[in-house]
Write a structure and sequence with these properties.
The protein is α+β, with helices and mostly antiparallel strands. The protein contains 25 helices and 19 strands. A four-stranded antiparallel beta sheet has the order 8-11-14-15. It has a three-stranded antiparallel beta sheet with strand order 1-3-2, covered by helices on one side. A two-stranded antiparallel sheet has the order 4-5.
């Protein structure tokens, strides 16, 4: 016999805990009953002992089993309630759950519920996070409300509470129950409140069942990296984002409640065993220590422990500045477990280097004299933005959500550097580990296919990753121009200390991206002047068509900078972006062709040749005026006529002297301002060949074409 309980929903923490309370009440009478959650958020059960009875008889039997929870509510509320003090008789006592020695005085069933209400960790006691301050919530007390609800509960209201989708009837809302049912709290912020207690949407049985489900839970909040043990209990409570308001900081927790569908029904005992064995790993071996990490751990994995989804509830302070703060559990969406879509798949593996290194664990709020440290609060705020970006990327599985994660990670790294600089050397700056570019390339394929600015930023971020043949033989990535870091290998950065510490290079993006990128081009030329090869190539080169579109004003340089800063958190792996949908065969700008080919002489010098060391050309490009860029292009053409045009030529010799065209160079002010960005973007060998062929005189070009045709005929013969 299958019975569905429509008085349950996943809209709020209390309504969902009510479903667990029904499971506990039915399992107490029929231990072999199997349960599952429907697609509508209801609880369904299958009781073999009730197969021979009709639907009405089964409902009546279940109603009688739930009715027994009334006595349970009176007994537990009385035992767990904090003793109140009287003026002439006795002083107020401590909560009986706070001292674990009191648990030995309880019976087996009562001790099990006591374990659900509190947990012991070392020498400190931690209450169940939902039961704030051992049941004290503001001026109300959950156990006092539980006792009163059990005394006033009526048998006639049980059926409507568990089977009626419209909700239960009878009774009113007691103080201190807002943490479970926040919709019943007076909304002072909006100016609305309930007029009469009878109109409040909560009855005694709603609260009793929610508390019964709550006491099924075990344990305290998961601490960040303090232990490598598995999750000690259910529910899964992890630290959330820090709420900063008016100079005060309030840590929050987030509760994750699992549901499972009809494909995997289970008894209450099986469910508790699967919860104890549940693992949500991030990286290689560590368990998730934060709410965002927990969602990443379960979002892209196969069905773990038979759970199909995790419902997220944030325990946020309602009035954080008061001496008796009240909390409310706000629903924050659902995390689906199992095979994810192509866009969402792999978010856990994409950020695995952060989890393996433990870099995110340094952003923990620290306190001094009861107040948060200023630097610690700043970093906690940046970590909160990163967590929200991760949550948004999971809730809305779009490419822009993933891009916001990279951007938030870059901003968090800048804030960490600012704090380390302000500390005067007492706090060492440790850059974040680089993420794997090849994995992110698959995740961002849709963006790179349709957005030219993203393709340019993708190529620009890979600048300098091929190893330069210097004395150290290490890469010179472009990220070294924006952070005081040096690269080690392919995926690691470090901040040198002492005499080896590079000068300040951090540049915050401003309102003139073309000026900032031009300054970065000039600094790169100056900083690498001692190298035999200029690190001006990249592992992910761009297409000449996209660079031409940038010079023609069809691509926003501000968007290019935005994508570039986000992609700086990736290493040099991954192949180039796809070509533009429609090739643009419009003539290339002669100034850009000559300047980029001049740069190729420094980036790919011939064996035995030296790179051009004259600073007139890069200085003219960085100046960014029409005249300076035109003069730089003329200087570049002179150099190309002597050294030859780079590229792949059939006979292996570069065209020089009169075979190099001298076109009339005209550069507008808009093109001059964008020329530094265009020249800095690495292009492929095919793009270099195309630029070189535009500067070959027509006669020589025809001669080369005829020679190529002859070679093709000879090969065919």
């Amino acid at each position: 016999m299958t019975v569905e309980f429509r008085g349950v929903s996943t809209a709020s923490l209390g309504a969902m805990l009510k479903g667990y309370g029904i499971i506990a009440g039915v399992a107490a009478e029929w231990p072999d009953a199997r349960f599952w959650w429907t697609a509508s958020g209801f609880v369904a059960t299958e009781v073999a002992e009730l197969d021979d009875s009709g639907v009405e008889s089964a409902r009546t039997a279940i109603e009688a089993a739930i009715w027994e929870l009334g006595n349970w509510a009176k007994h537990r509320g009385k035992k767990f309630q904090k003793p109140r003090g009287y003026r002439d008789k006795r002083a107020a006592g401590d909560p009986p759950l706070e001292d674990e020695a009191n648990w030995d005085l309880f019976g087996p069933a009562l001790a099990e519920d006591a374990e659900g209400a509190g947990a012991h960790a070392g020498e400190t006691h931690r209450a169940n996070p939902v039961l704030a301050r051992w049941g004290q919530d503001g001026s109300g007390n959950l156990f006092s409300a539980l006792r009163e609800a059990g005394e006033n509960a009526k048998r006639d209201h049980v059926r409507s509470a568990i089977f009626d989708e419209s909700g239960s009837v009878g009774g009113g809302l007691r103080k201190g129950t807002g943490v479970l049912f926040p919709e019943g709290i007076k909304r002072y912020a909006t100016g609305t409140q309930w007029v009469h207690d009878s109109l409040k949407p909560l009855g005694q049985w709603d609260f009793i069942l929610a508390m019964r489900g709550l006491l099924l839970l075990r344990g305290a909040v998961r601490l960040p990296r303090g232990t490598r043990r598995a999750y000690p209990s259910f529910p899964f409570v992890l630290p959330g984002s820090v709420v900063l308001s008016q100079g005060s900081a309030t840590p929050t927790q987030e509760v994750f409640l699992p549901t499972w569908n009809a494909d995997r029904p289970r008894t209450l005992g099986e469910f508790q065993a699967q919860v104890r064995g549940f693992q949500a790993r991030v990286g290689r071996q560590d368990f998730a220590s934060g709410a965002a990490g927990f969602r990443r751990a379960v979002e892209g994995r196969a069905v773990t422990g038979g759970f199909s989804a995790f419902h997220r509830f944030a325990l946020e302070p309602r009035k954080p500045g008061r001496s008796r703060p009240q909390r409310q559990a706000i629903s924050r969406g659902t995390t689906t477990v199992g095979p994810a879509s192509s866009v969402r798949h792999g978010l856990r593996s994409l950020l695995a280097p952060l989890d393996d290194s433990g870099w995110l664990d340094r952003f923990v709020l620290r306190w001094t004299d009861g107040k948060p440290e200023a630097d610690s609060a700043k970093l906690a705020r940046g970590k909160a933005r990163f967590d929200e970006a991760v949550h948004s990327a999971i809730d809305v599985p779009e490419v822009q959500g993933r891009l916001s994660v990279l951007k938030a990670l870059w901003n968090l790294q800048l804030e960490l550097w600012t704090v380390s600089e302000r500390s005067g050397g007492t706090k060492v700056f440790q850059p974040a580990p680089l993420l794997k570019g090849s994995a992110w390339r698959l995740s961002l394929s849709d963006l790179l296919e349709h957005e030219p600015a993203s393709r340019l930023g993708w190529a620009l971020a890979s600048l300098g990753w091929p190893p330069a043949p210097d004395e150290n033989g290490r890469p010179r990535p472009i990220v070294e121009q924006l952070l005081p870091v040096l690269s080690v290998g392919k995926r690691r950065l470090y901040a040198p200390q002492g005499d080896d510490q590079p000068r300040q290079r951090v540049r915050q993006p401003g309102r003139k991206p073309e000026k900032e990128l031009a300054g970065m081009f000039w600094r790169r030329w100056i900083d690498t002047a001692s190298l035999p090869v200029l690190p001006a190539t990249g592992t992910r080169p761009a297409h000449v068509e996209d660079v031409t579109a940038l010079l023609r004003g069809e691509v926003s340089v501000k968007d290019v900078q935005r994508y570039f800063l986000a992609f700086l958190m990736l290493d040099g792996s991954g192949h180039a972006a796809p070509p533009p949908p429609a090739s643009d065969h419009r003539p290339l700008l002669p100034a850009y062709a000559s300047l980029r080919l001049w740069l190729e002489l420094s980036a790919r010098p011939q064996p035995g040749e030296r790179r051009p060391m004259d600073g007139a050309v890069p200085r003219g490009i960085a100046t960014g005026t029409g005249r300076s860029v035109a003069d730089a292009a003329k200087f570049a053409l002179r150099r190309l006529r002597v050294a030859g045009l780079p590229g792949r030529w059939p006979d292996g010799t570069r065209p020089t002297a009169k075979r190099v065209a001298t076109p009339r160079v005209h550069v507008t002010s808009r093109e001059a301002g964008l020329m530094a960005t265009a020249v800095l973007v690495p292009i492929s060998c095919v793009g270099v060949d195309r630029l070189a062929h535009t500067l070959v005189v027509p006669s020589a070009r025809q001669e080369r074409a005829s020679e190529s045709k002859k070679e093709i005929v000879d090969v065919q013969r």
